[in-house]
Description:
Elements: E1 6-8, E2 10-11, E3 17-18, H1 23-29, E4 37-41, E5 46-51, E6 58-71, H2 81-88, E7 94-110, H3 112-122, H4 131-135, H5 142-145, E8 164-169, E9 174-177
Antiparallel strand pairs: 1-9, 2-3, 4-5, 5-8, 6-7, 8-9
Amino acid sequence: MEKQYTVPVEQDENGELMIVLPDEMTNELNWQPGDRIEWIDNKNGTFTLKKKNLEKQLVLVETVCQYRMRYCVEVPKGKSEWALDTVTMEEAKELSQHFLGEQIVSDRVITESEYFEIFDRDNEYLINWDKDKKMSFITKDDSLNKDDSLNKDDSLNKDENSNLNLNFITKDDSVSED
Length: 178
């Protein structure tokens, strides 16, 4: 079944012309307010609207975590500095700890090659893992990886690249989706 939408061309408060896409269509395409939509002139009287894919980059973020640790050390009276030595020498038993937070100390854009070098240097025991397994430690923004164009099985009319096509109808100032 083919779906068709006719949308009037409206004017905003600044006099700019605009169209408001139907919720049903944007929901099916998984388009959200704030998405960047590319407007492509097909040079045949139609236009293709396509969610613009954002370029991706890897950012290495380095942090320091802080804990408040408590130790209770028995020492001779008047020799409290000995307790400090015992803790410094890691001979004291931990009484308790409390996580105080994580502070970002640096960030920088890195290449995939640099990622693998850092991964192998920081995780020598995992050096034999394949690249896919190493890449699984990258936190990915799901919104950058979604395919929000139409699929071949969708019922909305589209071109061979699974993009939505729109035709302008000039006689009555409306927009119609083919």
